[in-house]
Fold this sequence. Notes:
- The protein is mostly helical.
- It is built from four helices and no strands.
Amino acid sequence: MAKESQTPLDDELARREEEAEPQQQPVEGELEDAAIESADEAEALVEPAEVGDNPEAEMLAAQVEELEQSLAEAKDQVLRTAAEAQNVRRRAEQEAEKARKFALEKFVKELLPVVDSLEKALEAMGEEASEAHREGVAMTLKMQHDVLGKFGVESVDPQGEPFDPQYHEAMAMVPNPSSSPTA
Length: 183
């Protein structure tokens, strides 16, 4: 690979790095002194030259500014991408939860007529029905209620309670001028 042309600044930095390579391990005090000295020399090298003195310095300053701007744009883009990924993940979780909820709702709506039929069967059993039949239907109904309870479905009796749209679902409305809206 061809070596790019170096600026005087690069040459000076390379020379100083070669000089700074330790021949032996310095003691702790010497290490601090060397660090301070190197920092001072680096600051002296980096001090901006007069604008008219060196066209290479102007070009390098422009490149540094351009690279800093590119870095800032890249950081901004990374942050935006991370935020977008987090939003997509959150939306996907919400949609999955909604899908699960609505699938469960449809399943429960299909099971409710079975529960209603079992309740009606218990009510309709007369004296002629055997105790075994009555007990079997009651046990089946209890099992059905237990299964629905596992999925958060519980029976309520809102008869006569004031209608609460947050809790009740209106199936039909029958006008009654003598009373307030109730469930």
